[in-house]
Amino acid sequence: MVSQLTFEQKYRVIGKDGTAYEGSFITAVKTTGIFCRPSCTARKPLAKNVVFYDTPQQALQNGFRPCKRCKPMEQQDETPDYISNIIKELQSNPYLRIKDQGLRDRNIEPATIRRWFRKHHNMTFHAYQRMLRIGVAFQAISKGKTVTHTAFDNGFESLSGFNASYRSIFGDSASLKPGKTKSIIHISRLTTPLGPMFGCATEKGVCLLDFTDRRMLETQFQDLCKRLGAVILPGDNPHLSQLAEEVAEYFAGSRQVFTVPLDTPSTEFRQKVWTMLQTIPYGETRSYKDQAIAINNPKAVRAVASANGQNRISIIIPCHRVIGADGTLVGYGGGLHRKRWLLDFETEHR
């Protein structure tokens, strides 16, 4: 439930008087990259550095990590010890990847921890890990810190260890060695009514636009870096500025066609499918079979569906406008709830 308190009311009660507001909102601090309960006893931050969210999930999606003092990811008086220990372990090393076998090695049944995270935070355990490590890496580098400081601030004993972990997310080292010739993919974060998104762009155009909690995001980062021989770093890019402006206009209902240049390296078949997607008019839908026919390959329905799933540029390349032959909503990487919202939104503003 969205809190009805104003910013000033929330800021006034955080800390000493925040106990009564547990569960109403989350306090995130831009300078530290940490989010807390309303009752956290840590030093009260300046108002200009505070952002309030309704849930821990929203704070994670926006790149913040949970406070080690007030433990906002844990439900007071009802969090099992094994959950607390796992969260503590991940907080000490956000880049750690605990897979199902790793849970079993800790005598934890994977289905049990998945149910707990879904019930209490509306996300899977693996989604929590993914958002935590991507958010920590992105926010640390975005602050303009040196790579060395970022590494040690995040608990790494060596720069090589940090770069190896960063590479596992963004596909390459967090720094460019002298004389190393690599192109740069610039990355930024956008705020939308459906949650935060990452935007990436080369000198040619936008190469990625996707929700920060999407399961395939790390794979897409790595694939882009490999195909373009590039490293992903925050920075100024005119295509990202145009992207932010056009996406804001889209969600305001005042833009139906995007003009920002795109850079979509992939196979010839996927390129053809993505080009066809951009011909589907705003507020209309097509089936996978319609897509296959449109590219003169009517038997390639499954291949078309797969290409849609590999689309890195959500909304602009509108794979959300493709539905099942029977009219049902199927196959959207950002989640079917977002697909339904986008289709309803476009129908309303058509």
Short structural summary:
The chain is α/β, with parallel strands linked by helices. Helix content is 42%, strand content 12%.
Low-confidence residue ranges: none
Q: Please identify the structural class as seen in this structure.
A: alpha/beta
- Overall pLDDT metric: 85
H/E element sequence: HEEEHEHHHHHHEEEHEHHEHHEH
- What does the overall shape look like? globular
User: Could you say what the CATH architecture of the largest domain is?
Assistant: 3-Layer(aba) Sandwich
Helix content: 40-55%
Radius of gyration: 21 Å
Largest sheet: 4 strands, mixed
CATH class of the largest domain: Alpha Beta
Strands of the largest sheet, in order across it?
Answer: 3-1-2-4
**What share of the residues does DSSP label as strand, in percent?**
5-15%
CATH superfamily of the largest domain: DNA Methylphosphotriester Repair Domain
Strand count: 10
Number of domains: 3
Number of helices: 14
- CATH third-level topology of the largest domain: DNA Methylphosphotriester Repair Domain
Distance between the termini: 30 Å
